């Protein structure tokens, strides 16, 4: 079983599409940070972004179907 589970991530973001957008934005920021810092981590940026979302470190604005 992989951590974090896709079900937990979708609950946090509201939909699969919101999850993809939030993950991509965070992964890009991580990529930009590693380009400016020597000695980058071996963890992939997308995996790290998903872990951060699962741990609640990344806030997802407007989650849920009723959000406008």
From TrEMBL:
Domain of life according to the entry: Bacteria
Record carries keyword Transcription: yes
Pfam entry (one): RNA_pol_Rpb6
Keywords of the record: DNA-directed RNA polymerase, Nucleotidyltransferase, Transcription, Transferase
GO cellular component, as recorded: DNA-directed RNA polymerase complex
Catalysis: reaction(s): RNA(n) + a ribonucleoside 5'-triphosphate = RNA(n+1) + diphosphate
Enzyme Commission number(s) of this protein: 2.7.7.6
Cross-referenced InterPro entries: DNA-dir_RNA_pol_omega (IPR003716), Pol_omega/Rpo6/RPB6 (IPR006110), RPB6/omega-like_sf (IPR036161)
Self-association state and partner proteins as the record states: The RNAP catalytic core consists of 2 alpha, 1 beta, 1 beta' and 1 omega subunit. When a sigma factor is associated with the core the holoenzyme is formed, which can initiate transcription.
The protein's role, per its UniProt record: Promotes RNA polymerase assembly. Latches the N- and C-terminal regions of the beta' subunit thereby facilitating its interaction with the beta and alpha subunits.
Family: Belongs to the RNA polymerase subunit omega family.
Name under which the protein is recorded: DNA-directed RNA polymerase subunit omega
Gene: rpoZ
